[in-house]
Description:
By secondary structure, this protein is mainly β.
Amino acid sequence: MPPRHAARTPWGHRHDRVTRFGIDPVRSTVWIDARSSLHPIHSETKGLAGWFEADVRDGGRIDPAVTPQARLELPVERMSSGNPLYDREMRRRIDARRHPTISGLLTSLKTTEVEDRYVVGGEITFRGVTNAYEHEMTITAVDDATLKLAGERTFDIRDFGMEPPRILALRVYPDVVVRVEIIATAS
């Protein structure tokens, strides 16, 4: 679906219109950090795909009066801790064959007192379970056609019906920190 716009500004649209930004799966990253009874578990994943639509004002400021929308997806198969044993157990517990993607849907965006900082609301679907969340995120202009969206949130995997793995004597704790840096370019 092409962006909805008429006369163009440097951002590629009129100030009262919405621009669609494609998520760059090569430049966007998802980091997941978990703790176990033995040591930390870290995953850094590329391959986040999707889109973000918003009325972007000069300088990259988002106008929340025009409700922004976004949809993101991350293939579970791309997630890796670098340890094949952990990764195999993680995919088994996620049931990656039945639930091959983790998806996110933006449902709200509100400004804060801090420039470039927003409270975003949305739904995350993981393992076929959808939960609503709200948290702060930074959205900044990289250049005249590119936005960077960044945020971090702690999730309890039990909220998605997943029991923390136990591998031999290793116990993984249920709270995981997910951090994203999303690069989106006007399409």
